[in-house]
Amino acid sequence: MRSLLALLALLAPLALGAVTITRTSQPPTGYEVTITYQNASASNVTISSLPHLTDQYSTSVWAWSEFDLNEYKPGDFPSNPQAGTYYSMSQTSPGNFTWTRPFPGGTYQYSFLLNCANASLCNTTTGQEITDPTNPPFEVVSGSELVSTFQVPFDPEFQHYPDLPLNQDYALPYGNAASKGSISIGLYHSPGSISPSPDIHDYVIYLPPGYNTSNITAYPLLYLSHGGNGASADWQNQGYISNLMDRLIGTGALEPTVVVMPTWYGILPNTTNPQALEQRNYPDPQTIASLYSTYLFPHISTHYRVSNSSSRRAFAGLSQGSFVTYTFYTNYTSYFGYFGFLSGGPATNDENEAPPLTGYVNASMLAQNPDLGTRGLFLSYGQYDILFQDAKRFQEALDDLGIRYVSRFVPFGFHFWNTWQDAIWHLGRAALWKPLPFSGATGHGL
Ligand SMILES: *[C@@H]1O[C@H](CO)[C@@H](O)[C@H](O)[C@H]1NC(C)=O
Ligand SMILES: *[C@@H]1O[C@H](CO)[C@@H](O)[C@H](O)[C@H]1NC(C)=O
Ligand SMILES: *[C@@H]1O[C@H](CO)[C@@H](O)[C@H](O)[C@H]1NC(C)=O
Ligand SMILES: *[C@@H]1O[C@H](CO)[C@@H](O)[C@H](O)[C@H]1NC(C)=O
Ligand SMILES: *[C@@H]1O[C@H](CO)[C@@H](O)[C@H](O)[C@H]1NC(C)=O
Ligand SMILES: *[C@@H]1O[C@H](CO)[C@@H](O)[C@H](O)[C@H]1NC(C)=O
Ligand SMILES: *[C@@H]1O[C@H](CO)[C@@H](O)[C@H](O)[C@H]1NC(C)=O
Ligand SMILES: *[C@@H]1O[C@H](CO)[C@@H](O)[C@H](O)[C@H]1NC(C)=O
Ligand SMILES: *[C@@H]1O[C@H](CO)[C@@H](O)[C@H](O)[C@H]1NC(C)=O
Ligand SMILES: *[C@@H]1O[C@H](CO)[C@@H](O)[C@H](O)[C@H]1NC(C)=O
Ligand SMILES: *[C@@H]1O[C@H](CO)[C@@H](O)[C@H](O)[C@H]1NC(C)=O
């Protein structure tokens, strides 16, 4: 067995690579990123998912500039990275590929397209898209995370721009070993689950530094959902949630908090579309909420030293995870004290629908369920967010009812991870575990 493995290792094609982030202290950004990849059987390699840049003068929700990273000017920020941006790597010797650009600060995702004639036709299904083997994603099921990630620091000398808060260093690693919480994968029984194995489902959990089951005090608990086409590992792999939490806790902005990141990826078989494990299942939010509350929540409260008090419990989610959050807010209102809507609300209105608004919380819902008005609500969205309208209308519906919330409008924000990292930073600083009900001064000065 041992020699067979050794033989396989020898036969496996050599594939190495790396992301090198260099502080140049030179224009245009002060930092340079080099990505290398080695694979003797690749004839050409394209980097996918890394963005071009845009600026506030040429950007809307549906349109943006596409400046090459070489053209960076202060005030630029990543344009919609899901729009299909590709960079060809240079082949320096057979099988050796490299690519270098100046980069502004922030978190970036990327993948490699191998031997690809037309980038928009190459993907994991065709076997031509891979993550970086030397910078592998954090994931539960191999192949379920489609991108590798890196973060570039902010350089105030070259990137400072008074109109926009573009420093995203809050997602960089924080402190020493003692300041770091742990991130791990947990499993629980959830009937019908098809991933990672029959009737067994997964979550990712962040335990704060010093987590100690003997402590008398139970930790407050945040459930944090991924979005459409997502999975439990997304917040760690693409959003560096453990770095954000370490920093929020280490700087004293947030008390030590346990974060559970559940997933509806593979939580049920898809009878209408048997291929749906690959395409990511899409149970409706009511089904997701019901499965989580029946199987996941009891598992978490019995396996971790977390509070059973609703005032110490929150549910938040991004994009489609925000629709799930809305379901918990309206149908499981009193189980949680706090709700975080990151880029979205119930998503029931199309952009062109004329007032009056329907599909959002209204006076009769509030009369039947007064707790809707007593929760700690946090709403955030980006200026260039595809769910801008939905999030704004949800705010207007709350305004009409006189329900207070803390909001965070992200001025450089697309419907993407930089926006959601910013949202978590503000959720932790301005909303979580703050006295309820929120007052007009909640979050003031942060
Ligand atoms: C090397 O490239 C080939 C395509 O030519 C691909 O099938 C293989 O997965 C790559 N190997 C690694 C380890 O990236
Ligand atoms: C890539 O370059 C390195 C030296 O930088 C060399 O050792 C290696 O053999 C090259 N790989 C291939 C596949 O040519
Ligand atoms: C990359 O490789 C594919 C497959 O060999 C080929 O069809 C395509 O033309 C190549 N593209 C470039 C830019 O060389
Ligand atoms: C690449 O594929 C897309 C989608 O099929 C197509 O629209 C586009 O014309 C193709 N590009 C080239 C250069 O063939
Ligand atoms: C992958 O690309 C092929 C075309 O090359 C397309 O038919 C297929 O739908 C794509 N799959 C996914 C999951 O995007
Ligand atoms: C739990 O105990 C550890 C170690 O004694 C300590 O660092 C941590 O702050 C405590 N946490 C709470 C919530 O009391
Ligand atoms: C956990 O907390 C208890 C009670 O505060 C303390 O006695 C114990 O040393 C702590 N354990 C660790 C590993 O910090
Ligand atoms: C099954 O797949 C279809 C088509 O992809 C999708 O519309 C539906 O929501 C999925 N159902 C479940 C339960 O995931
Ligand atoms: C919360 O409730 C569960 C289930 O009843 C129980 O096992 C756990 O000890 C409780 N946790 C605390 C901190 O009281
Ligand atoms: C609340 O639950 C009811 C039935 O239990 C369902 O009809 C309704 O759609 C749910 N509301 C939301 C916002 O999911
Ligand atoms: C309030 O919302 C509920 C649930 O969506 C809906 O059934 C009801 O018609 C709405 N009431 C008004 C006055 O819009």
TrEMBL record:
GO molecular function term, any single one: hydrolase activity
Record-annotated membrane-spanning stretches: none
Annotated keywords: Hydrolase, Signal
Pfam families named among the record's database cross-references: Esterase
Signal sequence coordinates: 1-17
InterPro entries given in the database record: AB_hydrolase_fold, Esterase-like, Mycobacterial_A85_antigen
Domain of life of the organism encoding this protein: Eukaryota
Name of the protein this chain belongs to: Alpha/beta-hydrolase
